[in-house]
Amino acid sequence: MITRETTIEDLVTILPESVNYFMEKGIRLLICGEPIWGTIEEIISAKGFSSEKVDEIVTYLNTLLAEKRRN
User: Fold this and answer.
1) Domain ranges of the chain
2) 46-71: string of b/e by CB count within 10 Å (b at 16+)?
3) Region for 48 from its dihedrals, namely left if φ exceeds 0, alpha if ψ lies in -120 to 50, beta otherwise
4) How far apart are CA 20 and CA 8, in angstroms?
5) 3-state class of 25 per DSSP?
6) Which among 53, 71, 55 is positioned nearest to 17, based on CA atoms?
7) Is the pLDDT of residue 36 over 90?
8) The whole model's pTM is what?
């Protein structure tokens, strides 16, 4: 399960497709192929997104993960 506290490194490992999703939102998760340090919450909040938006994104990421595991 993906949470607010999931590190970017872990997220990119378990759900590589999240990189494109975040790029669409203007949030870079990788620099020179290496994950940015920090948690999902830290990275999203640093871009000025609200706490509610953090929850929305985490929920969506868990949906993507569930779909990936079904396939």
Assistant:
1) 8-70
2) eeebeeeebeebbeebeeebeeeeee
3) left
4) 13
5) coil
6) 71
7) no
8) 0.88
Collect all residues with Cβ–Cβ distance below 8 Å to 2 and sequence separation of at least 6.
Answer: 11, 14, 15, 40, 58, 61, 62, 65
Is the confidence at residue 41, as pLDDT, over 90?
yes
Sign of the torsion formed by the C-alpha atoms of 26, 32, 63 and 38: negative
Q: Structure tokens of 48?
A: 């000025």
The whole-number average pLDDT for the span 21-34 is 86
Residue 20 tokens read as 């494109």
